[in-house]
Design goal:
The structure is a homodimer of 277-residue chains.
Chain A lengths: L4 H13 L5 E3 H8 L3 H17 L3 E6 L5 E6 L3 H15 L20 H14 L7 E5 L4 H11 L3 E4 L10 E7 L6 E7 L8 E9 L3 H12 L3 E11 L10 E8 L7 E5 L2 H5 L5
Parallel strand pairs in A: 4-5, 4-8, 8-9, 9-10
Antiparallel strand pairs in A: 1-3, 2-3, 6-7, 10-11
Helix pairs in contact in A: 1-3, 2-3, 5-6
């Protein structure tokens, strides 16, 4: 039975939102709704307009009988600025400061409403970039990696400091922790990442950047290419071992006894919103 | 400017899908689209029908001027069976068996398309249950916890075996690992979970269930209530310390030298699909 246009619009929206960056053919939709391809094309034009007007994302449409549509999620700068201001306010809370100048952020990185927007915002930077996988470090980078990978619709892989017997053969590298200059080891299951992958490296927090740099060298061991690096928060540090990265917020704990915290937007504006969407 | 119905349908679908289980008022939509509440009510009736017919989920609508709509995602049994069969096929691969009878599953738990369906399926069991938080154990339970928490639209918290200095004050419990009967310790940041929360416990893999049982006692220390327990895969074991749980697949490695693997659907059918949706 033919599906009505109103019902098609609702289901196509759901279908495309759940499959970011994948081309869905006109034929597929025509069969799904028992409708003519010309009707589906008109539907897609409506979706494209609504996605654009509401800042949901780009709907790329390929014309012709062999054509289809591909949904590429993005976040407009206005929404991004509002989101980052919300984060800055949430993190600007002295009770988050822990002894040693560390900052408690785990609650924020456990909230789906925040993670969804983190993923959407980081994915915006790579709207025209081919990415095969997202890489992060256990444990606290995982939520952000999953959020970004969901919007890019690619797998994510988890690098660990401790070897687990349930991971099988691993590839490892040694790296210098940026701040304390200790040598540590990180490893990734050999099976997790195909050789030659294009990888986006993400983490929850970056000080000097030792962990990020370690992951980058691990990508090299897998003969892959580092497409970029992104962190939820960057701390204040005198010297960084990673020069090119995107951060959402900048956190500075002023004193070592945990008495103060200064939070500001990270460098996302200049890294992500360089060209008009 | 008034928004056209077609555009409203697309945007309302996006808006509701991104806010599962939250009531959105008619007033909010009426202002968002500069449209009459009566038109919004008609739109919601279309969404409700399409969501139902396509197995996207339930759209609960509250009538009247003070009313609104709440989207509750679920997965129909037909889709669930198809999904689980796909998983069984993917896991039935002798190269996944590692020395000691462990099974490599990390690749599957790093794929957004799989995680989305895992979350949707587990959330289906709790369609009428109030849940405040999802709890899991680091590191490999995290992706599943995030997937389930996303569909329930509640925070998730991560229990760890090792204390991290960036977590602040923690609450800890000792627990018996089910298979080896060693005593271990697990802890959760005090700040992560409000006292008295209703908690769903999830993990990637369960053998005897020691970790799950440990998490349950940790929920007790936070004066909370365990709403249920769910695992991606359960292994074969002679005795379990957890009796009530939901599993998606059942994995049995036949020999200790890694020569065979038998995979079957878990108990999800009898746990989740007991009443008609």
């Amino acid at each position: 039975m033919k599906t009505r246009r109103a019902d098609r619009l609702v289901d196509m929206t759901d279908y495309l939102l759940n499959r970011p960056r994948k081309l869905v053919s006109l034929t597929h939709f025509a069969e799904r709704y028992d409708s003519a391809k010309s009707s589906i094309s008109e539907d897609l034009a409506i979706l494209k307009r609504a996605f654009h007007e509401r800042g949901i994302g780009l709907l790329e449409t390929l014309p012709g009988a062999a054509g289809g549509a591909r949904f590429v999620p993005y976040m407009l700068q206005g929404e991004a600025d509002e989101f980052i201001n919300e984060l800055v306010t949430e993190v600007s809370d002295e009770t988050r400061v822990l002894p040693g100048g560390y900052v408690f952020l785990s609650d924020l990185l456990g909230r789906p409403d925040i993670l969804r927007r983190v993923g959407r915002l980081i994915a915006t930077q790579y709207i025209n970039t081919e990415i095969d996988a997202v890489m992060t470090a256990a444990t606290k980078g995982v939520p952000m990696a999953q959020a970004v990978a969901t919007e890019l619709n690619v797998p994510f892989v988890i690098v660990r400091n401790d070897s687990k017997i349930t991971e099988g053969p691993t590839m490892s590298v040694n790296y210098l922790t940026g701040s304390s200059k200790r040598v540590e080891k990180m490893e990734l299951s050999r099976r997790s990442l195909p050789t030659g992958s294009r990888v986006l490296v993400v983490d929850d927090f970056m000080k000097a950047g030792g962990t990020i740099k370690g992951m980058m060298s691990l990508v090299g061991e897998f003969e892959g290419t580092v497409v970029g690096a992104a962190v939820f928060a960057e701390g204040r540090v005198s010297e960084r071992v990673v020069t090119k990265y995107t951060s959402l917020i900048h956190v500075d704990t002023l004193t070592s006894d945990g008495a103060g915290i200064t939070v500001a937007p990270g460098n996302y504006q200049s890294e992500i919103y360089t060209t008009e969407l």
